[in-house]
Amino acid sequence: MAVRQIRVIGDEILNKKCKPVKEMTDRTKELIEDMFETMYEANGVGLAAPQVGVLKRIVVIDVEDGYQYGHFGRRYIHENHPEIIEQDGEQTGYEGCLSVPGKTGVVTRPNHVVVRALDENMDEIEVEGEGLLARAICHECAHLDGQLYTELVEGELMDTENDEEEITEE
Known about the structure:
Low-confidence stretches: 66-75
Largest sheet: 5 strands, antiparallel
Strand order of the largest sheet: 1-2-3-6-7
Helix content: 10-25%
Shape: globular
């Protein structure tokens, strides 16, 4: 496992659409492990593959809210080919991003989402999230389509006190 460099706003890869993962290879498994290590090292709650320079539809999420999914005994969602198939409700709160260091802004997202994805065995799954988990799922899935949260900010981006990813509920 290795900590990878996080791409920051201005890097063209962050504005590109990602390609589906067609098979789970050792290299893809290593990428996922590296993404977790990178996310934890940066104190983030989610990370999408383009944020580490890879145009694949993979995200990792750990909101540490007691939501438990998957192997390795960690709290996270690992999604290949994620597609939001249901969303309802509304939540407005501050968001930040590891690719937009030192900034935060108010964003409105669905309060409840259901996402269809493939797990580590390439089996189709559905994951349901509310609150912070729903916000993180929407934020990370947007990265896979080349969208940054800065495009959704209501008002102005604000400076934060540190460069950690900040996704909060309000």
